[in-house]
Design a protein that fits this description.
There is one protein chain. The protein has 215 residues and is of the alpha/beta class. The protein has two domains: 3-80, Methyltransferase, Methionine Synthase (B12-binding Domains), Chain A, domain 1 (Orthogonal Bundle), CATH 1.10.1240.10; 89-214, Cobalamin-binding domain (Rossmann fold), CATH 3.40.50. Helix content is 58%, strand content 15%. The radius of gyration is 18 Å and the shape is globular. Bound molecules: CO-5-methoxybenzimidazolylcobamide. CO-5-methoxybenzimidazolylcobamide is lined by residues 42, 45-46, 48-49, 52-53, 59, 62-63, 65-66, 98-105, 107-108, 145-147, 149-152, 176-181, 196, 198-199, 202.
């Protein structure tokens, strides 16, 4: 069995204690860190989601799988991220109200930091007002990232974007959205400035926003 398959199996079965070690072994063998993340962990979480949909597993199993993935990401982080020493701009990031999923948000933050952004992490289940207040309190914030993982919390994303569009701070920020149920069409409909499918492209788009602004 390949090391990546071992990592995937360990994530799927929530074996937090061994995931970190397996990731380190894969790195030592020269396996590409992005492959470890995408195939060993993100794809593993999709399999977990499919099993949940089929009632083969339940919330506790999803939770332990999430914990196991976080352990793996901790080991992988220095190999995926740059040194983040030079700040290209400040951003605010959070998962919308009613939504507790944070792995995707954390990956976006990790990629943003590696692209040189300073990120204020508002966490999960973030009220609309908290997004707005944070932007108002931090006049140097130039990007707001909003994540949602549930179809039932897409309306909260709509409300969040609406409040940011109506805020007097609107002119200085770009609003970026993402998460499994979000599409480009939905992003356009709610007036977000950008939608990206994954964390790496989110960082690329964010960087293009600040490069464009300073050109
Ligand atoms: Co939940 N859950 N969950 N869950 N969970 C999903 C999302 C689900 C698809 C599973 C399924 O049914 N197949 C389903 C949603 C269905 C739907 O809405 N259509 C679901 C459900 C139903 C639920 C509950 C309602 C279950 C229940 O209680 N009955 C409940 C809701 C709780 C709540 O939020 N109020 C719930 C709870 C949980 C746990 C707490 C147990 C746990 C989360 C733990 C945690 O995050 N700390 C959990 C998990 C682990 C999952 C799955 C299995 C994995 C999610 C994940 O971390 N994926 C998930 C199934 C799935 O996704 N296939 C599922 C890996 C992660 C890297 O991907 O977050 O998509 P993702 O991030 C991606 C992109 O989306 C993107 O970048 C990342 C990759 O690079 N991205 C952005 C994300 N945000 C972005 C922002 C950007 C740009 C890109 O710009 C700002």
């Amino acid at each position: 069995m390949s090391k990546i398959q071992e990592i995937s199996n360990a994530v799927q079965s929530g074996k937090s204690k061994i995931v970190g070690g397996l990731v380190q072994e894969a790195l030592d063998q020269g396996v590409n860190p992005s492959e470890i993340l995408n195939i060993g962990m993100i794809d593993a979480m999709s399999i977990v989601g499919e099993k949940f949909t089929k009632n083969e597993i339940f919330v506790p199993e999803m939770l332990v799988a999430a914990r196991a993935m976080k352990k793996g990401v901790e080991v992988l982080k220095p190999h995926l991220a740059g040194d983040g020493s030079s700040s290209v701009g400040k951003m605010v990031m959070g998962t919308v109200s009613g939504d507790l999923h944070d792995i995707g948000k954390n990956l976006v933050i990790m990629m943003m930091e590696s692209a040189g952004f300073e990120v204020i992490d508002l966490g999960v289940d973030v009220a609309v007002e908290k997004f707005v207040t944070s932007v108002k309190e931090n006049p140097d914030v130039v990007i707001v990232g909003v994540s949602a993982l549930l179809t039932t919390t897409m309306p909260a994303m709509r409300d969040t974007v609406k409040a940011l569009l109506e805020c007097e701070c609107r002119d200085r920020i770009k609003i970026m959205v993402g998460g499994a149920p979000i599409t480009q069409e939905f992003a356009n409909e709610i007036g977000a400035d950008a939608y990206t499918e994954d964390a790496a492209s989110a960082a690329q788009v964010a960087k293009s926003f600040v490069t464009f602004a300073s050109a």
